[in-house]
Amino acid sequence: MPTLAVYAFEAKAIQAWITAGGRLRDMVGGSRLVDGLCRPEGDAQEDETLDLLSDVLWRMGDDAAPIRFARRAGGAVTALVEADHRPALERLRALLTLAVQVEAPGLPFIDALYDADGLGDALAERPGALAAARARVARPAPRATPFTRLSPRTGGAAVPPGADFFRGDGLAVAGVDVTGEEALDAGTLARRVAVARARRDGKRAGGAVGLERRMLPPALADCVFPTEMDAAEAPRGAVVFPFSGEDRTVGLVHADGNRLGETLIAVQSALAAVADADAGAGFLLALSNAIGTATALAAQDAVWETLSPVGHVLPARPLVLGGDDLTILVRGDCAVDFAAAYLRAFETRTREALAPVRERARALGGAALEAAVPAALSAGAGIVLVNANHPLDQAGDLSESLTKFAKGAAKRAAEKAAAGAQAGRPGAPPATLAFHRVTTALADAYGEALEGELTLGRGADARRLTCNPYVVSGEARDMASFDALAELADVIATEGFPRGPLRRYLGALAATPFQARLDYRRWREIMEARAGRWLDDFDRALAAFGVPKGAEEPFPPGRDGGPPATPLLDAFALVQIGRRSRRSASGEKAA
Q: What is the 3-state secondary structure of 45-111?
């Protein structure tokens, strides 16, 4: 006979929903709405930011008393009650799903309510219950007809901006067009109102609120993040993105933890032996909160290390910060270094945050539960470098694809290392990043760009113009080091270094490879005669990738059975986006 009732909820396609339409102000609103779906329990909020789950529980009154949570962060909820209190979860489900559709119209989600015999059974059945719920797709409302006016940015059915459905208190301060001249669908209108409320809440709180507040290190607490890309289109009171000169390159960074799913499965399996369901659920909640706290602190560390405010405006805009996920828009010259700093800090912060969780695990479930909780986590990141005028919703798809590419390579490296050492369970994957500078049509998946733009020749003659992904921390023999790439970029960026011939060499590789090889050889001869010190630095930087000194071309032997790949184009990408050389920085904080 079932002893527990379980309710599981997950928001899906979060990044795609946030970036829909491609306009920064709408992304800011979508980010705020998603961030406010479910905050961690005990997350004190001195401001008036949205906390949808807490609002629902408050409205339930005493009916919410029996509910215990195993997770409530990152757009996901797992709630448990004893079987006799199942009606409490039924009411929670009815109110939460309604509230999500009202506050965040069009946001996809799945949920399931099911019975279980104990905590282990409850956790084991969760994935299957949610998978079955995927067939129940919520239709966006209102539905479009042949006579419906559509939003040109999203294709959704336009709604009257003054509808009571959206509570008029936000419209007066939102800068929302209430004349009907701009056709907005329900989701976009909700985002615009959310931006206005965030601005209002920030004024009342005297500083940043919600997601923005969690991103700011204490020393930069008075700073703000931008809400608009273009000053000409910005409403009064909006904060405009501080670009560097005429360069409008931005980097969309998406980072995701490695093997968190495997960790949760191992923890849930060990918890099956714990008889106290409340204690087990409390442990899972503590684990989730610890990872979320570590993610936020790692983001703060990266902000402090790589971003400097222009006035009081930081050159970045956070979009997602929850669980082990981070998505942030960063000015192009800072984006790749921000991602690298975040990956290093994530490993450090998770090590600190998980230490007390491991102690609690040993007290609750013995050595088996403690062993299921890793000492630290690593992460992978994908960065899309694109002009701010490009569709940022498409850049979001590409950044997720880059992240999967980087994490996949890290997982294979960890498995290969474990096989070589004849170890049982693979160790932690190294922290890796992959980036792509968009210079042609924006691809939806990195595989398309890798094969179509960055691979020359086919079969045994194939060569690649990128060494993606790069290892930021940890060991992986068959992967290139990000520190080595940064050193190569610093050499090329040295004032007076003759970059023109190298750039022409890269441009000619596809059309005239034989002539390109001759030109590269000639460039080396001239450098050796006139600038031997620079050539030595250049060769030393290439040697870190396995390129022999004096090689006819800057291609090392292929790694792990792959084609030969040069880091030269990646290094030029870092130089061209204006990344500050570490040589010129001399150890100071980035400008």
A: CCCCCCCHHHHHHHHHHHHHCCCEEEEEECCEEEEEEEHHHHHHHHHHHHHHHHHHHHHCCCCCEEE
Residue 591 located in a structural domain = no
Domain-located, residue 65: yes
**pLDDT computed for residue 241 by the predictor:** 93
Let me know: does 96 contact 90? Beta carbons within 8 Å: no
Task: Please state the pTM of the whole predicted model.
Answer: 0.90
Amino acid at 407: K
Per residue in 55-66, pLDDT (tens digit) is 999 999 999 999
Going by C-alpha positions, the residue among 415, 384, 376 that lies closest to residue 402 is 384
Do 346 and 419 fall within a single domain?
A: yes
Neighbours of 312 (CB within 10 A): 11
CA 495 to chain centre: 34
Q: What residues form DSSP beta bridges with 8?
A: 78, 112
The token pair that represents 342 in the structure block: 């975040």
- All residue ranges of the chain with pLDDT < 50 are 44, 46-47, 164-175, 177-179, 583-591
Please name the helix (run of DSSP H) or strand (run of DSSP E) that holds residue 398, with its range, or none: helix 392-420
User: Is residue 590 assigned to a domain?
Assistant: no
Amino acid (1-letter code) at residue 205? A
Q: Rounded distance, CA 280 to CA 474, Å?
A: 32
Coil, helix or strand for 490? helix
Backbone region of residue 283 per phi and psi (left: phi > 0; alpha: psi in -120 to 50; beta: other values): alpha
For residues 189 and 170, the answer to whether their CB atoms sit within 8 Å is no
Say whether both 408 and 424 belong to one domain.
yes
The residues facing 436 across adjacent strands are 384
**Which amino acid makes up residue 408?**
G
| 449 and 462 part of one domain | no
| Domain span at 162 | 1-144+155-205
CA-to-CA distance for 391 and 19, rounded, in angstroms?
A: 9
Tally of structural domains, the chain:
3
Contact 358, 344 (CB under 8 A): no
381 lies in the same domain as 371? yes
**Has residue 363 been placed in a domain?**
yes
How would you classify the pairing of strands 480-481 and 470-473? parallel
Q: For residue 102, what is the domain's CATH number?
A: 3.30.70
**Token pair belonging to 121:** 């059974």
pLDDT reported for residue 178: 46
234 and 380 fall within a common domain: yes
